[in-house]
Structures are given as structure tokens and as C-alpha cells.
Amino acid sequence: MNIPEYRDDDLCADCGGKCCMIYVPSRNMKRQRLHEDEKHLYGGGHYLEYGVEPLSEKIHPHACDYLGMNGCIIPWERRPSICKSFRCGIWRDLIYRR
Q: Cβ(42)–Cβ(33) under 8 Å?
């Protein structure tokens, strides 16, 4: 399956990573879906694929285990597909106004 990837370093992460608040019911992402999704059924992956260990302390209770104070610690090339394809409403609004 070919999932489109979006990247715009000028826009992405300006909000401080609100899209990385994934452990809330509306996002329906669980640790297992991000860390142990070896078959990539949910858009996640296996934690060994990311090249970095999850952070020992999260910056927010609902924050992704890989969201640091300066954004995602997983290199773009290794991020789960769900992270590279998701775009929030703020991002879409800004990109279509260009």
C-alpha cells in the first residue's frame, strides 16, 4: 500500500506537536499499535525499526513516546507511516492558502 507522505519543515511542528498527542480516544492509537505493529496493520511499526529508544519520560501524559521538547526524535525516514501521512486541520489550512 502506498501511503502519501507530507513534509513541510516550514509549517510542521510550529504548533509544538499537537498531532503527536496520540494516546487519546479520538486518535485511537495505543502503545502496541505504535511499538509492536510489526505487520504495519495500523500505520505504526516495531520500535526496533525507528533507530531510537522511546523517551523514558514523556512531555505530556497523552504525548507519543518519541515526542521530545524539540519535536519527534525518530528520523523522518524511519517514522511510522501514520506519522508521515497525517496532517492536522491547521496544516491543511495553511498549505492551501499559499
A: yes
User: Is 44 domain-assigned?
Assistant: yes
In this structure, what is the dihedral angle of CA atoms 48, 50, 56, 62, given to the nearest 10 degrees?
Answer: -120
* Number of domains forming the structure of the chain: 1
Q: Is residue 73 situated within a structural domain?
A: yes
Is the distance from CB of 5 to CB of 12 less than 8 angstroms? no
The model carries a pTM of: 0.78
Rounded Cα–Cα distance for residues 56 and 76 (Å): 21
pLDDT in tens, 44-90: 999 999 999 999 999 999 999 999 988 889 998 999 988 888 777 77
What are the residues whose beta carbons fall under 8 Å from the beta carbon of 34, sequence distance 6 or more? Answer: 22, 44, 45, 47, 64, 65, 80
